[in-house]
Amino acid sequence: MFTMVAMRSLWRTVDPPTRSLITALCAAVTVAGMSYGATAVAAGFPLWFPVVLGVLVLAAGSEFLFVGIVAAGGSPLAALCAGLLINARHIGYGLAVPEVLGTGWRGLRGAHLLNDETVAVALAQRTTGHGRAAYLACGAGILAVWPGGTLLGGLLGTAVPDPGVFGVDAVFPAVLLGLIMPALREPTVRRGALAGSALALLTTPLLPAGLPILLAAVAAARTIPRPWAR
What we know:
Number of helices: 13
Pfam family, one: AzlC
Membrane topology: Multi-pass membrane protein
Strand content: under 5%
Keywords: Cell membrane, Membrane, Transmembrane, Transmembrane helix, Transport
Protein name: AzlC family ABC transporter permease
Oligomer: single chain
Distance between the termini: 37 Å
Structural class: mainly alpha
Family: Belongs to the AzlC family.
């Protein structure tokens, strides 16, 4: 009961455009989750496994990678290491929104909801309060629909189509790009984005795939101010 009341309060704090954005993101995450669940079950995993993984990890990219590596005959340890490498980008995310995450038990709860979508939605808000509310509302929605979609996809099995056919895989980068474009009007933000881009380009020939992006994200995180920090 308390959780429902708290969620309603959060939802009222979030402005209508952000509510619509979160709803659209959750719809896309549901479809992606269905594909993930169907893929995992078809690869031989028991239905409970991807669902539990979805609740505990809550990171689609690393979960898809884990399932794919194990299904292809790789060791679970190698799959785990690959997933941790992908999720290392969350270090930069945490540096970008420390006010949103909070401290202590609240910080642990907030860190579990940390992903591309929640951080982008939070950074698009005007104040710390609005940023925290949008972050938690988006995170709670994804926490519900990702394992929920996974369960549904696992039950439906091969009846679930590839989300790429409908362009769902393009929803997330398009939304993230749309959220950051207004911020690029700020000179400091532009400098941070350009510095991160340059670092990624320079290190791409030298480092394994994925690491240049992680370095760029961490480097840019401390140079780009939050809207509510100005």
